[in-house]
């Protein structure tokens, strides 16, 4: 890892935990931490044995966005530097969004800037009741463009627009109502229970089918809903039914046993 503040742990049964571990800075991201997160996500991209990925922060805070040193550096460097910097963050969020596993955020405490980007790009967000979500770009004269596709996908255009333009914080319940959060838990014990529950579900699913679902979702979101799209989706349905995973899943269901998913 390029940073001591990013930890990746993978259990033998395929549960990965990526920990942002810089509590003294409320888990704010440095340049090195972005590089280390990219390395971790790239590793997970090709980790076929990993079934679920949790992204969480240390000591009760998820991620407070960019380190202040990074923010101040943006104003002192030229456009080329800032474009490369923005590209690194945009690529990081895109990589997270496209990981083939179920991606779960454990949102605690302060969730700001890039922390909101992670939440919007993930598949599931468990928020503790004390979580606060904030993107302060409009207050700083900064346009957080990299996160907009993911915010719009999770919150809808109107909610995303109001959230970014007002730079107002969202509590966990409002974030749930807006679609940024999937579920709210009250305390650490409930958070661990929710993570265990999702792990159990993930370990029962077909890895190849989860990958196919995520890829198909991205495909649908970028194509017009017309006859061509319908024909392609019908083909994907049929392909799944005759695939090794499809045959094994149905057979196991009928035989009332746990499926033995094929490795592909």
Describe the structure.
The chain has 264 residues and is α/β, with parallel strands linked by helices. It folds into 2 domains: 6-202, Alpha-Beta Complex (2-enoyl-CoA Hydratase, Chain A, domain 1), CATH 3.90.226.10; 205-255. It has 12 helices and 9 strands. The protein has helices at 31-45, 68-76, 79-97, 114-121, 137-140, 148-155, 157-166, 172-178, 188-204, 207-221, 227-242, 244-255; strands spanning 6-10, 15-20, 52-57, 102-107, 110-112, 124-128, 132-134, 170-171, 183-185. The strands form 2 sheets. It has a 6-stranded mixed β-sheet with strand order 1-2-3-4-6-9, with helices on both faces. Strand 1 and strand 2 form a beta hairpin. Helix 1 (31-45) runs parallel beside helix 3, helix 3 packs parallel to helix 4 and helix 6 (148-155) packs across helix 7.
